[in-house]
Amino acid sequence: MIFLAKKGMFSGVIFLGFGLYFLLQQFNIQILQGLYTWPTLVIIIGCGFLAQGYLGKDHEAILPGAVITGMGIHFHVVNKLDMWQEHAGVFLLLIAVGVLLTYVKTGVGLMAGILFLAAASLLLFFDRLENWAVEHGHDVSLISNFWPLFFIAAGAYFIFAQRKK
Q1: Number of C-alpha atoms within 13 angstroms, CB side, residue 27?
Q2: pLDDT at 132
Q3: How does pLDDT run across 125-165, given as a tens digit for each residue?
Q4: Which value, in Å, is the radius of gyration of the alpha carbons in the chain?
């Protein structure tokens, strides 16, 4: 009961969303047929976190809300849109969006959001950048072999350097 009292916005959105989901499913509206799947339920849960973060006082709920909502959207569209990638960079992009949305509300985490956005961009577009560089006569083997070190360095920075502040 304590969870429900402190997380009223979250619980309210979840119950409201699930209720609407099951009600619409009973009506079997043809235009909504593609939404009667588990990713829609994931989106509803993510929206619960976002509502708790934006409308409630629990701003830390924004990050999981953005990631969970984004994952639901991702699983809805990954097989329907040719331009949408099933790639690890998508998940880093969702984290970047979540951290940046949290920054907008709290003023904390801009650097982390930018680094996650840079890492996501690197992952999502690395193959295109690599092809472009090779076409223009640049050797990218050193970069392609050592790019994971970027992630290790960023992680070490946030674990050790940020801890001292």
Answers
A1: 10
A2: 75
A3: 877 777 777 777 777 666 667 778 888 888 888 888 766 65
A4: 20
C-alpha–C-alpha distance, residues 47 and 17, integer Å: 9
Query: What residue has token string 């976002």?
Result: 50
| Structure tokens given for 117 | 């956005």
Tens-place pLDDT, residues 84-128: 777 888 999 999 999 999 999 999 999 999 989 988 988 888 777
Q: Cα(54)–Cα(10) distance, rounded to whole angstroms?
A: 11
- Report which of 68, 50, 60, 66 is spatially closest to residue 98, judged by C-alpha positions: 66
Amino acid identity for residue 82 in this structure: D
Q: Which regions of 3-155 does DSSP assign to beta strands (E)?
A: none
Is 51 within 8 Å of 10 (Cβ atoms)?
A: yes
Amino acid at 163: R
Report the first-to-last Cα separation within the chain, whole angstroms. 37
